[in-house]
Design the sequence.
């Protein structure tokens, strides 16, 4: 049964590899290097006290704009499938993640958070989870396999009450998005204050991710009318200090399949695809660069940990030596005094009954310095001298205890595991990264340039 299950998984992986593009495979393999349960970089980094985040396998594109700005229509056009309803009542619209998968499926809020664990902090925002959903499509159009669209509620002014803090939620999602598309339409509330407030706050942190588009450009009348609409929107944006910038770019777009006859205005819809493609390519490069950097960091921390272990072992050897030295001194001093008293003249009779006279003479010779020191001390101070010697011995023993304190070291098993993981990172992971980078570059340059 296990072999049959293994063959089934292998066959499934083979099919997935055939249908998967090279860039999808690169991001998937990079992600796998981080999340492997046994030798994943995230697990290895945890053992070193380092926190790493696994790269995502897709980029996320956040779409914001007023109600009926064409966000859902654009998603349907991009994936060439009608997964998002258009013209939905504002009161029933929430946040929808649109992503590629094996089959058509719809997920509710909790299932969405299981699919995207990095979005779980949304649970802290009241009412948001109930208005989360995911639409999974098997579409392979354009580069949908590398993109997750996040469709947001249409923003309106006035007394409209949302069942959640829509602005705070959009700001939170904007922090994780790779691209932020802002759609303005010429006939709706393009200059909605709520939309402008959200855009201005997002622009403070993520101006490089934001792209502005005039949607439904075919409904703006002739060229003169479109220019007037563009001027009005740009002027309104520039009134906001955070959005006042030179070279304001706002391509005009519309979905051709939604108009009854060909429009005369320029459709820059492909520019949106170009922005997505550029972000995907940049994300792949950033992922590979981050992988290399994380490998270097892990290898460096591992070497530091092993070097610290070597230093701690050397320190422990010196500490034990000092402890033994002070301990011997602490014990030898009172022992020498005791033997001196036993070998003194008053103890001759006792010693002659225990050991031979030759041994007694030898002990007296060796203890002659102690005897000389004891004779120098006046007899009236002998008791004080004994107390002093006892204190010195006690101090030496205390020094021995403190001097012999050791530092914790790695066990042989842990040390060997660190060495194996360092070899795995420097060998397998770096080699895989090099191979993936080469595969990525081969899409653009010839093999001669890579040699």
Sequence:
């Amino acid at each position: 049964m296990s072999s049959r299950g293994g063959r089934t998984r292998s066959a499934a992986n083979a099919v997935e590899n055939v249908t998967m593009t090279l860039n999808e495979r690169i991001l998937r393999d990079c992600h796998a290097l981080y999340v492997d349960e046994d030798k994943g970089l995230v697990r290895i980094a945890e053992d070193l006290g380092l926190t790493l985040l696994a790269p995502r396998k897709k980029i996320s594109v956040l779409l914001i704009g007023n109600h009926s700005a064409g966000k859902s229509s654009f998603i349907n056009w991009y994936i060439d499938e009608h997964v998002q309803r258009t013209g939905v009542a504002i009161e029933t619209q929430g946040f929808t993640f649109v992503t590629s998968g094996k089959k058509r499926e719809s997920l509710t809020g909790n299932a969405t958070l299981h699919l995207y664990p990095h979005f779980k902090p949304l649970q802290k925002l009241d009412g948001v989870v109930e208005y989360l959903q995911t639409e999974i499509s098997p579409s392979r159009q354009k580069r949908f396999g590398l993109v997750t669209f996040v469709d947001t509620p249409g923003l309106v002014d006035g007394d409209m009450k949302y069942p959640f803090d829509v602005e705070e939620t959009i700001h939170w999602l904007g922090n994780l998005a790779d691209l932020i598309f802002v759609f303005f339409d010429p006939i709706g509330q393009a200059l909605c204050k709520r939309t402008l407030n959200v855009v201005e706050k997002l622009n403070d942190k993520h101006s490089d991710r934001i792209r502005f588009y005039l949607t439904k450009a075919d409904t703006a009348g002739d060229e003169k009318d479109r220019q007037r609409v563009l001027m009005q929107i740009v002027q309104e944006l520039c009134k906001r200090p955070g959005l006042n910038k030179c070279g304001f770019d706002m391509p005009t777009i519309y979905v051709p399949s939604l108009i009854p006859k060909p429009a005369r205005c320029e459709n820059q819809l492909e520019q949106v695809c170009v922005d997505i493609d550029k972000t995907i390519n940049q994300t792949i490069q950033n992922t590979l660069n981050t992988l290399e950097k994380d490998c270097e960091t892990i290898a460096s921390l591992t070497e530091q940990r092993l070097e610290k272990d070597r230093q701690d072992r050397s320190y422990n050897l010196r500490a034990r030596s000092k402890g033994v030295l002070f301990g011997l001194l602490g014990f030898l001093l009172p022992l020498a005094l005791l033997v001196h008293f036993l070998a003194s003249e008053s103890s001759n009779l006792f010693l002659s009954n225990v050991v031979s006279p030759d041994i007694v003479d030898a002990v007296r010779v060796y203890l002659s310095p102690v005897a000389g020191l004891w004779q120098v001390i006046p007899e009236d101070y002998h008791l004080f001298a004994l107390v002093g010697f006892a204190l010195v011995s006690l101090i030496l023993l205390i020094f021995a205890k403190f001097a012999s304190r050791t530092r914790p070291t790695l066990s042989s098993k842990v040390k060997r595991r660190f060495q194996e993981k360092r070899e795995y990172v420097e060998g397998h992971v770096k080699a895989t990264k090099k191979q993936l980078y080469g595969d990525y570059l081969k899409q653009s340059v010839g093999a001669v340039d890579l040699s």
Summary: The first helix runs from residue 2 to 19. Residues 5-15 have pLDDT under 50 and may be disordered. The longest strand covers residues 59-65. The chain has 15 helices and seven strands.
